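Contributing new records

If you add data, match the layout below exactly. Sequence lines come first and carry their own label; structure lines follow with theirs. Keep one chain per record. Anything else will be rejected by the validation script.
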Amino acid sequence: MKKFFQKIILWIYIKIHITLINISIALFNTEQEILKADPNNLREGDKKIQRMRHRNNVLEKFFVGQTDEKYVKDYYEILKKADKFIRTSTPHQMAIAADKHGSNYAQKDQYGRRYEHLGFFDGKHKHAGKTLKEVFDLEYEDRRTKDDEYEIMYIFNNKPIEAGLAKIFDVVKKTDKTVVDMEVQGIVKSGSTEIEYVRSPEQHSEFESEDIMRKSKAFEFPIRAVHNNENIVNKIEQLSEYLHVKKIGFEYRVLEFFIPLHFKTTELADDSDIFKEILDVKEIFVKDEYGQLKGFGIIKFMKRLQHKTYEVLKFEGIEMEVVGRV
């Protein structure tokens, strides 16, 4: 009986020591791997970051770099809400929101300079104490045509954008041309006649430099138009500096194209071919400040009038539902 208990105690002793030895070996190997590790090895695949998921699903997708259709939609909704707050909040409301989030909004720096002007904190400013929406409404009222009372929904700036060389070389193609070098290689005499001979023609590819020069002067316009006749030369989207969209009701809109007077469109008769080309427009597409594509179908031409330094061409249209952002 005594020997039996001795065997059990010996077995427990051996098991404990084996376990301790295995732990020691594991700790030693781990220590060696850490000491031998390259401190400059910063591979992202070997990193493991543990954190709590953010309770806001949009911010969680932002942190992990996940994008999908719903994320884009929610992201733009946040921008719209932020934009609405900035436009409709008074300077006092902005200051409260800034203080709540730990910012010193509209406070002066050590040199007495103030950088934020969205709330018109400067008491000497003509719009002091007004919201951005009130200021925009005044600006819209000053810029609008006075022949109707429709509300302005959008004002689009149609300032052209230079295409750039990257896009130019995408559209300029190589052309295979036979180039003849007329350098005289020798003279052959045949009796009293001297005949010059030249080097044989060489076939090689070259860029059309004239086409590159022409393309480099091309511009892209924010307003894109679809015409009934795509071969016309005088296009309204290339003449207009601004596009005002007014609301008639439901989806019906008034589209006003502001063409600077230096284009001298006022000298064109209503029945002239050039003016008819300008009016040849079927659909209009333009992006708003959030990148959302707006589409308008043209129903009819209404009238033309002069407003300050512009000739305004007015169309009646309908706002279309455009899917996606491009």
